[in-house]
Automatic annotation (TrEMBL):
Protein name: Helix-turn-helix transcriptional regulator
Domain (HTH cro/C1-type): residue spans on this chain: 38-91
Any Pfam family hit: DUF5753
Highest taxon listed in the record's lineage: Bacteria
InterPro entries: Cro/C1-type_HTH, DUF5753, Lambda_DNA-bd_dom_sf
CDD domains: HTH_XRE
């Protein structure tokens, strides 16, 4: 096995290296990348999750969470697992340990810990590192495409029990998340399909909704943003189960993640069969939806009604 310096990439023999620069080096994705490498090392060594768990005084389920990047890594656990997997070269071990330390660093969103649930902080970390984001939204304009006024109205209606400080924190996070679409260094690509109800439901009043629709028209002209509306005339459609988001990362080593937000929690799906099912649904609703030009025509027609 050849292990490069931590600021470059790390690799397992027989696999392509994961570039830390390419995935942005954010803590969430660093955990995913490191976990994937540990899984490949374990499998190459013929070690079961149960045996790996015993080596770090934990259960096999913790090994599974570590390999999926769902939890942070303790330095002692990394060293014990690498020893179990036959990785004993001091430089290689230290490279892994350094990456584990970087994976524990806090992202910009952690300053809002008091106002955001843990399960959503995970999503923000994934979104910040994603290269391609595809989503279907049934009820609201996607957060990445919301104006500040519209976003404030949505947050106030969904979290009316929160005080003004928490509401402003949520708003600040939503607005900063949008920077991934306009950043100079490799903006993310967004492909959003919106149910027609999402652009016709008046949120915050007619003036706010008008500015939101105008913003959608403007954003739809960006080369990295595709917006489609799924019209009422389609009737039943493949995404009748509700809203979802599919995140894809710059490196093929990292699996796609499907994000399903619920009222008080969220699901993160990364099994190949689940991902394939949601990709198929996304493809079908994209075909059923109006193309981007006709979507702009519909949005402009809605503007005339507001």
């Amino acid at each position: 096995m050849v292990l490069a310096q931590p600021d470059d990439h790390f690799a397992v023999k027989g696999t392509e290296p994961v570039s830390m620069a390419a995935v942005g080096g954010g803590p969430t994705v660093l955990r995913m990348a490191l976990g994937a490498q540990l899984r490949r090392l374990r499998e190459a060594a013929g070690v079961s999750r149960e045996t790996a768990g015993e080596a770090i005084r934990a259960s096999h389920s913790k090994i599974s969470r570590m390999e999926c990047g769902r939890v942070s890594f303790k330095e002692r656990d990394i060293r014990d697992l690498l020893y179990l997997y036959g990785v004993t070269d001091p430089m290689q071990v230290e490279s892994f340990v350094t990456l584990a330390r970087r994976a524990k660093e806090r992202g910009w969103w952690h300053k809002y810990d008091e106002s955001l649930p843990d399960w959503f902080e995970t999503y923000v970390g994934l979104e910040q590192a994603a290269k391609i984001i595809r989503c279907f939204e049934a009820q609201f304009v996607p957060g990445l495409l919301q104006t500040e006024e519209y976003a404030r109205a949505v947050i106030q209606s969904a979290h009316s029990e929160d005080g003004p400080e928490k509401g402003e924190d949520r708003l600040a996070v939503r607005m900063r998340r949008q920077e991934i679409l306009t950043r100079q260094a490799g903006p993310a690509n967004l492909w959003a399909v919106l149910d027609e109800g999402a652009v016709r439901r008046t949120i915050g009043g007619r003036a706010i909704m008008r500015r939101q629709i105008e913003h959608l028209v403007e954003m739809s002209r960006r080369p990295n943003v595709t917006i489609q509306v799924l019209p009422y005339s389609v009737g039943g459609h493949a995404a009748s189960g509700g809203s979802f988001t599919i995140l894809r990362f710059p490196e093929s080593e990292l699996p796609d993640v499907v994000y399903l937000e619920q009222l008080t929690s969220a699901l993160y799906l990364d099994k190949r069969q689940d991902i394939d099912n949601y990709l198929a649904v996304m493809d079908r609703v994209s075909v059923q939806a109006l193309d981007p030009r006709r979507t702009r025509d519909l949005l402009n027609a809605i503007l005339q009604e507001l």
